[in-house]
Design brief:
About 55% of the residues lie in helices and about 10% in strands. By secondary structure, it is of the alpha+beta class. A 4-stranded mixed β-sheet has the order 1-2-6-4, with helices on one face. The longest helix has 25 residues, at about 150-175. It is globular and about 50 Å long. The N and C termini lie far apart (about 50 Å). InterPro entries: DUF7089 (IPR055515).
């Protein structure tokens, strides 16, 4: 199921700097959330498994089953929206997993995704938004009640956490111009590709042409790539969010949904 990935000089250097102990593995099968039996196979290629669990009271009663599974003591690796690369601290050492869905993608794009995952691993922050929001996830769900269903709240939380991580990583990416120019170019290119989709996002949201969760994903990706997100997401482009994390995100959601009512 898992094999060591051959690393380019750039990726090896990024790993040495940000997550020197991390494994980078190619996966034989694609996944959103790694099936339990296959997750256990990680024990064959790592030193140990360390499943994370969270208190039941953090999870609303109507939350998606995947979130309940993630909060349990079952080893749960990966989540919808992770894309072609996932990472976990639930193994020792931490592991970056490259999925076969990336086969045929431009090499520069794949290289950047792997590099991004290694930088995120090096932050030593939760791999899932539940570990970041904690008990405040219920407050986020309450703020979104009537506007988003439980799956939409999950989507919003994942997007908000993506932006939060991005506020910590984008300075690293911006500094790659000299040392890792190809990775830097890939990061810039990804941001530029977002611009046409961001231009009319506020209008589309107001007209109901784009759902709030989908809009949040685009806007939070803009934050990650150093692009200015449109209203009402501009308030996430701030040092205060970087510093206060979940508390700031919940307050932003409360104010945003109040204005929309």
């Amino acid at each position: 199921m898992f094999t060591d990935r051959d690393l380019s000089a750039d990726i090896a250097a990024v790993r040495d700097e940000h997550a020197p102990d991390a494994l980078v593995l190619d996966c034989a099968r694609d996944f959103e959330t790694l099936p339990a039996a296959q997750a256990e196979d990680l024990a064959l290629v790592t030193d140990a498994l360390d499943p994370r669990s969270y208190p039941d009271e953090w999870v609303p009663v109507d939350a998606p089953e995947l979130l309940r599974r993630y909060a349990s003591d079952e080893l749960t690796v990966g989540a919808p929206g992770d894309g072609g690369v996932a990472w976990t601290h639930q193994t020792r050492p931490p592991t970056v997993l490259v999925k076969p869905r990336l086969a045929g993608s431009p090499d520069a794009f794949v290289e950047f995704l792997v590099a991004e995952a290694l930088v995120q691993v090096g932050l030593d922050r939760p791999e899932h938004f539940l570990g970041c929001f904690g008990e405040r996830y219920r407050d986020l769900a309450e703020a979104a009640e009537g506007r988003l269903d439980p799956s939409g709240t999950y989507q919003l939380a994942a997007a908000l956490y993506d932006a939060y991580l991005g506020l910590h990583t984008r300075e690293v990416f911006a500094d790659w111009t000299d040392d890792h120019p190809d990775l830097s170019d890939a990061w810039v290119d990804a941001g530029e590709r977002l611009e046409p989709r961001l231009a009319d996002l506020s209008t589309e949201l107001a007209r109901g042409e784009t759902g709030f969760g989908d809009a949040a994903e685009l806007a939070c990706a803009a934050v990650k790539h150093g692009r200015e997100p449109p209203t009402p997401f501009g308030a996430l482009e701030t040092e205060a969010y970087r510093e206060y994390g979940a508390d700031y995100a919940v307050r932003w959601a409360e104010k945003t949904f109040e204005r929309l009512d």
